[in-house]
Each structure stands twice: as C-alpha cells, then as structure tokens.
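Researcher: Batch entry, complex prediction.
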Amino acid sequence: MADKKMTIKEILKDNIITSNPIFVGFLGMCPSLAVTGRVSDAFAMFLAFTFVTILSNVFISMLRNVIPANVRIPIFITIIAGFVTIVELLMQAYAFEAYNSIALYISLIVVNCIVLGRAEAFASKNKPGASAIDGLGAGLGFGLAIIGIAALREVIGTGAIVFTNPLDGKEVFNVEFAADYSLKLLASPSGGFLMIGLLAGIINAIVLSNKRKAKLAMVAAAPKPAAPAPAPIKKEVAAAKPAAKAPIKKTAAKPAAKKAPAKTAAKKTTGGKK
Amino acid sequence: MDLLIIFLSLAISQNILLTKFLGICPFLGVSGKIKSAFSMGMAVIFVIFSASVLSKLVYDNVLVPLEISFLRTVVFILVIASLVQLLEILIKKYLPQMYKSFGVYLPLITTNCAVLGTAFLVIDNGYNMSETMVAALGVSAGFTLVMVIFASLREKIESGPVPEGFKGIPIALVTATVMAILFSNGMPAVLGWLEAL
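Model: Structure tokens for the complex:
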C-alpha cells in the first residue's frame, strides 16, 4: 500500500509539474490557445479532456496485450475518438451552453497530442489502475495550466472573472477586479498567443536560471581541473533533474548554441539522455 | 464572387492558424528553411483538400442518410488516417520526387488539428461541394502562407537579441501574436480602405 501511494504521487507530480504538457512539452497547443479566453471555457475543456484521457488510458491499458504494435496508433486514435464522441454527446445533452462556446475544440481532443502521448507512453505499458491515475494527472496538468492562463487572460483582458456553471450556464460567481476596463487584445485570439508566449518565456527563464545556479554551485563546490568537471556535473545533473527537463533544454539549447560552458554541459546532458 | 470571399476570408482574416489555432504544432516546429516550410505547406494543401472533399462525401452519403451524424468525429478521423496512408503509398510509388519533397511531414499530418478542423468547418458551415473545395484550398493556402512567412522570419528572430528564456517557442508565439493581429484586423481594414476608394 505504501509503495502504491508513493507511485501515485510520483505519477501525478510528473504529469503536473515536471513534464507539464503545456509549459514543458508545448503539446496540445491548439485547444490551449483557443479555450483560454475565459475561465468557464477552460474549466469545461478541462473536464472533457480529463474524462477522455482517463477513460481512454484505462481502456487502452486493458487492451494493451492484444493490440498489435504496428497498428497501435490508429487503434489508439479510434478508441480515443470513441470517448470523445461520448463526451460530445454528454455535453450536448447536459452542458449545452458550455459545449457551444468550445464545440470544435472538444471534438479536436481526438487529435490532441497529449492524449495520444499518454496512451503511447504510459497506458500501453502499464496496468489500468496506474493508467487511470496517469490520465488524471495529465488532465490535471493540462487543466491547471489552461485554467491559470485563462484566469490571467480574463482578468487582464476584461477586468473580471465570470464563472458560469457548466451544467446550466448560470453564473456561479463573478469576481470583479476593475470596472469599466478592458484590454480587448487579450480577449482576442492574438492575446492567446501573447499570453502563452509570455508565460512560457518567463517560466523557461526561471527554470534556466535555476539550472544555471545549481550548476555553478556544483562547480564551485568541487574544485577540479576543467576536463573532469563536465563529467561529474553531467552525472549530478542527470540524477538531480528529472528527464522531463530535457524538452526545455532541447528547445532552449538548440538555438542558443553559442552560449557559455553551462550550456555546453546542458547539451551534453541532453545528448547523454538520448 | 461568393467563392472568392470564402477563399480570401479563410486564407487571411479567419486564417486557420492565427485565428482558430489549428495546426500550431507544425507551425512551432518550423525551421528557418523556407523550402521545408513550403514542402510542408504543399503536403497540407494536398491532404486538407482530399480529406475535406472525402469527408463531405462520406457525411452526405453515409452518415446523414443513416442518421449517425454524431459519429462524425470517429468516421472523419478514420477517413483522414486511411487517406493519408493511401496517399503516402501512392505518391511513394508514382511520384517519388514529390514524396521526397514532402519528407516526413506527410504521415504527421494525420494528427494535424487543421485537417480534422477543416472537415468539421465545412460541415458546420453547410457548404456544398464547390464551396467545400474552395474552402479547403483557402484554409491550406492560408496555412502555407503563414508557415512560409514565419520560416523567413524565424532566422532573423533567432539571431536577434532574444532573452534566454524566450528562445525557441516563446518568442515564436509572441511573433505569432503580431501576425495574428495583422491577419485578422489588417485584412478587413485594407478591404474597407479599398472599398472606400
């Protein structure tokens, strides 16, 4: 029991923080940009997405030993499409207002890289129980990110957050920060790009500076000649930072090829991970 | 004239990438090479056109008569996946030069939101067959245009003074913001000015 609990926490933490699909992997950008105009939209999307991801993960996990490897991707997509259809119909029946504003993007969950990615990376290799937790984690990681972005966009864009109950479209609460104020840019599609770009940039900058501080600390703590130094750093960094940081390094390290030695160590680590 | 309006609006003022956010993944991954952006665009035009036409045919002749139009998500994605697979085999065999220029992009287009999105768009807007074809061409032409513009900007951007945390995808998104504003607001403004002349 204790083992499983640790594993649950690990699965959740991995999905929500270390490999957050939006801020780390930049997956599932299409719906993220589209539904983050309002918190209500983002919340509805979060519910639908989590529903699909958990169920498709469980289903695929249950069938993992009978699906032939060479046609697994089309089969995964079909299974996911089935659950997306179910959620479309459920929303049309019970949450029509919420469905209407994001109808297209609910349907597009079927080609969402995150869902397919979790199916491929986790559900096809793990038991249904763990896969369900993984699906929940992916949903939470995605959902928390888009709700956060939506909150920022709605507040800065319209000065208030109006949260409507997905089931009957009635206003649940209305938090007003500034009356008579609107920055239409942020409420429009262009604002979606801007907000996610800025947030991703800021988060990336923070992560990179933390990494650099850690590396500098390690170099200072172990005064050795230049040649052996990269090797222990590489091992420490590889052990300390979860594998999921590699995507950021790849995105950042690629164009920043001519940077300081810290970057060379990052590149080496990325190379070592492959 | 109607067809021209459909084409222009889908290509520019309602550009699928910049206003509906479909097709972001390849957009963010595009390199500075204009040629590969163009090849990707060509592959996309090909697939979106055939997928939209085929999806519409299946919808009108199979789903609606059998009253199972709610299965459109499943059916369309299967249609698209099979279509892409088939296209890949045919092109590889009969047009190897074209196959080479598409490169690895062709199979990746199966999970491209833009393809499925266009199929839905065509159905939701109630287009007939010729409007469908024009719409598909408009969407994919707009997509290609944005990809090529962005590819040519990318090199300039990366060599400029970009803050470290923003390198790569974040600065790409910020650039996309400007392009989105230009495309969605600039076009009507230009049209209005032309009309006033």
